[in-house]
Amino acid sequence: MLTLLWLIFVDPSFVHAAPLLDPMAAFPVKVELKDAGPSVKAPESFYSEMDMDFQSFDPNDSSGLPLMGNHTGQLVKIKKLPKDTDKQAEKDGLAERLELTYERLTSSTSVVIPGMKQPFETKSDLGVFLMNKPLVIRGDGKTAKKVEGLEQVRAQAAAQVKEPMARNTLMTMLKEDLLLKTGAAVGQNSSCLGSLEKKKPGDTWKFSHEEQGVKLEYDCTFEGWAEAKGKKLAVIKVVSGKQRTVRTQPNGMPGVAETEGTGTVYFEPETQESLLRMETKINVEPGDEEIARLKAKGATIPRNKSLMKMWNHLYAI
Q1: Confidence (pLDDT) at 290
Q2: Rounded to 5 degrees, what are φ and ψ at 228?
Q3: Integer angstrom CA distances of residue 90 from 82, 137, 167, 232, 308
């Protein structure tokens, strides 16, 4: 999380206005504030900051200790570039451009390995590798279509990042579909905020989007207004009910993943700054056919429970 701090003192290009919202602060709703929801439009150039803690448990293990834990922190600068004037680019719907630069990307992982007294731990600071490698996302302004220069950066990562866990993390982060999603997710319309305008405190609505072929649905409630440093914040509760997805397990058999989550979005209308806090529970187990087979053999049914706590903070450059 400390990568690049020294640069603040030697390179003024790294200095930007301090955001309003502290991801660790509390913003209680003030019931006396009754204004309707504001209009929402994402800034063209902004920072996307994220912090995530993930822990995975074996329900069959009575110790209650996590089998695996991961903490990831990142700061991504997303800047809108001038439109490409090339006629072919415009014809192909690739004239719109976003420059995406990872200014910070840290990851630490702890894994329990049978036979070892202490968990195996790794730490990586990948921001040093990525900070001078901006990627350009090209799209038609609505749908991102490609990431320029991605294969070159992936090849450099494979050659230069020697530690296996760090290299695997970096190669995962540098997948085109994930980068395109990062570029698209900065739009406030990709969340409950997209329908906030003119809503009144107490109003509810639904939001859905598709991710990796799975449709995710959320219930949104405009809880009212809070305040931070004298400015009003719209407060939206987000609930993701239980959703079951069938996916292929590493052993080739179908498995079932069940997720549910709750969170809160805080939105400051003047600067369009937003902060999402979310907690998601994930339960994974084999499919019914495999469970029946394991029960018939008297074998333990492998199950996994995970908890993910994260916040995502968007603010204008």
Answers
A1: 83
A2: -140, 120
A3: 13, 14, 36, 40, 41
The answer for 264, left when phi > 0, alpha when psi is -120 to 50, beta otherwise, is beta
Please say whether the beta carbons of 121 and 108 come within 8 A: yes
Q: How far apart are CA 4 and CA 315, in angstroms?
A: 19
User: How far is the C-alpha of 3 from the C-alpha of 105, rounded, in Å?
Assistant: 8
| 7 contacts 14 by C-beta, under 8 angstroms | yes
Distances (CA, A) of 242 to 48, 138, 217, 258, 260: 28, 35, 10, 6, 5
Q: CA gyration radius for the chain?
A: 22
Q: Give the 3-state secondary structure of residue 147.
A: strand
Q: At 46, give phi and psi (nearest 5°).
A: -160, 170
Taking a C-beta distance cutoff of 8 angstroms, is the pair 231, 33 a contact? no
Task: Express each pLDDT in 178-207 by its tens digit.
Answer: 788 766 654 444 578 989 999 999 999 998
- Contact call for residues 220 and 202 (beta carbons, < 8 A): no
**Domain ranges for the chain:** 27-42+192-317, 45-186
Give the tokens for residue 186.
Answer: 């900065």
CA distance 14 to 100: 15
**Which range has the worst mean pLDDT, 5-19, 92-106, 195-209, 278-292?**
5-19
Q: Are 38 and 292 in contact (CB under 8 A)?
A: no
Q: How far apart are CA 298 and CA 247, in angstroms?
A: 24
Region class of 99: left (phi > 0), else alpha (psi between -120 and 50), else beta: beta
**Structure pTM?**
0.84
Q: Which amino acid is at 286?
A: P
Strands 204-211 and 214-228: antiparallel
